[in-house]
Amino acid sequence: MPTRFSYIALAVVCVLALVDNVVALTVRSFDRSSSASSAYGPFEWMRDIIFHHSKSEEKSPAVVPSVRDVAKVEIYYETKCPACEELLNGSLRQAFEDKNLSARIEFNLYPFGNAVMLSADEVSEGYHFWHDNTSVDGARSLGTLVGDVVFVCQHDDQECLGNMIQACTMDVVKTPSRYVPFTLCMASYDISFGVEKASYECGDKLGIDMDALRNCVLSRKGTKLQSKIGEISNDLALKRDHVPFVMINGVNFPDAEDGKLITSICASLTDPKPSICQEKTGTGSSIAGCGDGLC
């Protein structure tokens, strides 16, 4: 006949088994969050731990293209994200350099990514001390705080500076035929290089007025330009939870983010289509996107 101690022992065994299962579940979820091939958005790793569920296990609905004569391509990215650089250096470069295809694309670039905008009064006195707009002699610094806005970027101040430089370049040179090559040139530099070196050498090579660009970056105008891109990037209607994030004619194409940009653009164009649309355009990227801590 079971004794009271038998029941206690049985209860202890059950509790230990439950704890073991929770630990195993947590470990498996963290493993997936660091090695999955798809991007994670903010806090999705928490969802995985609770529900034992990963984004790679979801079945995405089939994308229904919106077909037009000219494809409106919107790319949301950040300048120090490896997956973003792969998209820019790979299929975007191929699309831009094919004259027949690029003639039927309206390029729209949004260098902001997973950055956060804060008002100046939301940060500490210590931050103001180290990142003030002006130095002792009155010259502007290259800090992230310009005017009344603080930009906090996923890959630190280097990325904030890179984002701002590219936002200002679009304003200085005006047309995609000039600012897309600048963006692609910066992306061609290894991610370990500073954005100062990449932007200066690319600007010099492409004949961009670097003094005008620097004045924009270090001014309230640059802050307004970057803030506007941030507002567009964070629009809830986008349902964006990672970068790179690609919209074509108002439709999100996950395949385009994974190395199949040209295929997705071609699917969104009316006939007759450029000859490149009949060619094999490659497979997916092996780099996960920049969601929650993957870059």
State the gist of this model.
The chain has 295 residues and is an alpha+beta fold.
Describe the protein.
The protein has 2 domains: 4-57, no CATH class; 71-278, Glutaredoxin, CATH 3.40.30. The protein has helices spanning 4-35, 44-51, 82-97, 99-102, 125-130, 156-173, 176-188, 195-205, 210-217, 220-233, 254-257, 261-267; strands at residues 71-77, 105-111, 116-119, 145-146, 149-152, 245-248, 251-252. Mean pLDDT is 79; it is low at 22-57, 134-145 and 281-288. By secondary structure, it is α+β, with helices and mostly antiparallel strands. It has 12 helices and 7 strands. Helix 3 (82-97) crosses helix 7 (176-188) and helix 7 (176-188) crosses helix 8 (195-205).
What would you give as the CATH superfamily of the largest domain?
Answer: Glutaredoxin
Fraction of residues in H or I helices: 40-55%
Strand content: 5-15%
Mean pLDDT rating: 79
The whole-angstrom Rg is: 23 Å
Strand tally:
7
What's the N-to-C terminus distance? 60 Å
CATH third-level topology of the largest domain = Glutaredoxin
The main sheet orders its strands as 2-1-6-7
Using the 3D structure, state the CATH architecture of the largest domain. Answer: 3-Layer(aba) Sandwich
Q: Give the overall shape.
A: globular
Number of structurally distinct domains: 2
- List SSEs in N-to-C order: HHEHHEEHEEHHHHHEEHH
Q: Which structural category fits the helices and strands?
A: alpha+beta
- Note the main sheet: 4 strands, mixed
Low-confidence stretches: 22-57, 134-145, 281-288
Question: Which CATH class of the largest domain?
Answer: Alpha Beta
Number of alpha- plus pi-helical segments: 12
